[in-house]
Amino acid sequence: MPKQQRRLVAIVSMDVAGFSRLIHENEKHTVGVITGVFEERILPATASHGGEVFKTMGDGILIEFASPVAAVEMAAAFQQETRATPVLDASGRPMQARIGIVLADVLVVGNDRFGEGVNLAVRLQEFAPPGGITISRGIKEYLDGKTELEFASLGYQKVKSIDDPQEIWVWPPDQRAKPVKPGLGNPGRPSIVILPFDNLSSDPEQNYFADGMTEELTATLSRIRDFLVIARNTAFTYKGRSSDVRQISQELGVSYVLEGSVRKSGDRLRVTAQLVAADTGAHIWSDTFEGATAEVFDLQDMIARQVAGAVYPSIRAAEVERAQRKRPDNLEAYDLVMQALPQLWAHRMDANAEAIRLLERALVADPNYGLAAGLAAWAHAQQIVYNWTADAEAERKKGLHLIEIAVRNVGDDPTAMTAISSAIMLLDGNVRRGVEFVDRALSIDPNHAWAWTRRGFSHVYAGESELALSAFGRAISLSPRDPFAFHTYIGIGLAHFAAQNAPEAVHWVRRALDLRPGMTWPYRDLAVYLAHTGEHDQARLALAEFTYLRPTMTLESMADDLRFMSPPLLRRYIEGLRLAGLPTAIAEQHP
Known about the structure:
By secondary structure, this protein is of the alpha+beta class. Helices cover 52% and strands 17% of the residues.
């Protein structure tokens, strides 16, 4: 029986447009021309770009490339040559090919390749215009800054025999196709961004209260399945900026913008909100709401209902009510969680410690607050995973205790479920149990960008690189300007490393470092990946950046901290640290 192995590759599927008609008109001429093109153009172009043809099927050809960039360059060069030097059919008309390219985790058996990715490449090719190329989201991510070709998004499309809609990008031969912005792929599904509400109170410390209004409205509306809602992290990049809504429409591809303000004075609250058509700037709806601060959740629900009705009249009030989460019993606890969120998203050692302090206070005020417990458990997990603590076991013990509090009180809050999922995987190493929570989060809120990122990590930990890259791509499309995107890039890098593509892993971790200058923990990944590419001097320098603030790190402690990785992935990761020079014991650092 042939030896079997898996690898992550770019798959190119090519066929001849109108093949059945051409065969019917003149079979002998058509077969002769296609055979000539295959031998004289396709095979040399494939070889020069490092590819390998592994299957031919009449007019169809499947080719494997180790590099997605090389796959796209070969496809574009072939299409451009065919335009410049046409191949004619029996009637003297130019013959054209359609090409689809995907990133796929394939099973290699002898000279053949198997897997869903092979089928997807063929199906994607069917969306390509004659003389054009279509690519998957995974391929598009690779091309950033590496090609001058301009691809236009066709949005999410239902692909035959594939369960989930796929975002497809096209290179049209005449370059006249207009790009479709994120969120506009399905014109029957309204897309919206909730901009950070302005704080009009005299006390700047009340900013978090306005942020909470934005947070809750985003969470409620994103759970209505007829909406596509841009994630809160991208929305908050507009905080404090004076931006024209038409510019926002162009940048985010949304059809509606919700903006407003909050004024809190004593125990009284006034909220003003307005809904704007993003492409024209026309006001669709606006209103002012007043009440006691204790009624803040009622005000948020009222606004959500009116926005939903104005954007999509067919949405019934009951649908909005189903999207409203169980709120905390204690308003002080809610305030403290809102204050903790920006500290958590800052993703820095000092900020993470402050988030833990705030969340502990929230749990004192409301011991049964599931969201606070889940976020606190995740914060303790970060202390370990990013080596921000000298006492990993103490952090683990606290985090595991918080997980059980959160599980008992999570309700149907997708953010809490995502935090619980992350904490379970990172603290307990139980990826299967963690996946149950993140999948529940996505079943409730399919627009939850952070949940898609965590789903990507769960696939990486299990060694499912192709699925991981698809989930990370979904997260990026839901939050295209996310300051937390560096974390997604870290995941993409680990996915490539798991797929035995260390050079590409190096590229992605460096992109993450470019987004967050001053971070040191990603140098751990960089050291591992560089070591596996044979760049040992650079790997040692990267490891030195990581261990400068963490002198007690050893191979044993790292293996324990990263116990959530699958055994094969963990072994390769630890081997990279060994090659980069991390000692097996502290004594080796201080002989």
